[in-house]
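Final report, closing paragraph on structural work. Over the funding period we assembled a curated collection of sequence-structure pairs, and we close with a single example.
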Amino acid sequence: MVENRCSVLDTSPIAEGSTARRALRNTLELATLADELGYHRYWVPEHHSMRGVASAAPQVLTAAIAARTNRIRVGAGGVLLPQHAPLIVAEQFGTLEALHPGRIDLGLGRASGSPAYALEELRPVPDAFTEQIRQLLGFFRDEDGRRTVAVPARGNEPGIWILGSSPRSAAVASEIGLPYAFAHHIDPSAAEESLTAYSGTTSLLSVSVIAAETDARAEWLAGSARLKTLCRVKGKSILLPPPEEAAAYPYTEDELALLRTRPTPIAGALGTVAARLRELRDRTGVRELMITTPVYDHEDRLESYRILSRLCSVLA
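Its predicted structure, as stored:
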């Protein structure tokens, strides 16, 4: 039987009243805990000009996490390749793999990961994603006839994944023959179609999950993420608010109906969460779940991951 795996996706969230420095230090603490608890991998994303996300440089953060952990796989979930030269990415992640052999992952995405106004600063290469992936793989695999060589990448290829939230990204992963990571926390509705479109054998789902000792406590904690989602949909950007503030918010019927159309975290005690995730796993066939946990207080986030560390054995 295929082994169930549980992993972590950490955006280094900046909650209301916190700072990027505090958020990044929280990431290092959570990564250390995840390593001790037996999680399989730990990914950090690339997002730019997003007030509530401190993870903007996954290459740097991956290095810091790998240096502080012992066995967990660490990597980018992911690098937004259209914004980078494949040579530079190969050199960066080849160096990481050389320093931490067998522990580095490189997830590749094509989305901007940024507000539209930030794209002018990033200058992404349009419509070149598939070709850039092939160039990147060539640097790692030292193909004959290549004039430019990414020296630290030679013989040091990390685990390379394609990231996405649509059948289009699944098709790219299938065409190139790479593992596929689907962002269920971004668009749950496209999960089954995208994974059906993927013809490879290795895939994972990133899922938004909040666990606590009771269903009521978890639902209360999830209020922060729901209020932030509502504000974003209504065109107002806020940092993750305290759950007390979210609980006091006077939702209208229209706002509640609007929230029901948007992705929100799976929340509950371990048994409740396991039942929801078991059903999701069985529908998609995916055996690795990558958990992201959007809660206001860092201690509540640590506790959620402690509870969820038992998830794989419960799902078996």
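Residues 42 and 272 are 24 Å apart (CA to CA). The chain has a mean pLDDT of 92. We thank the funder for supporting this effort.
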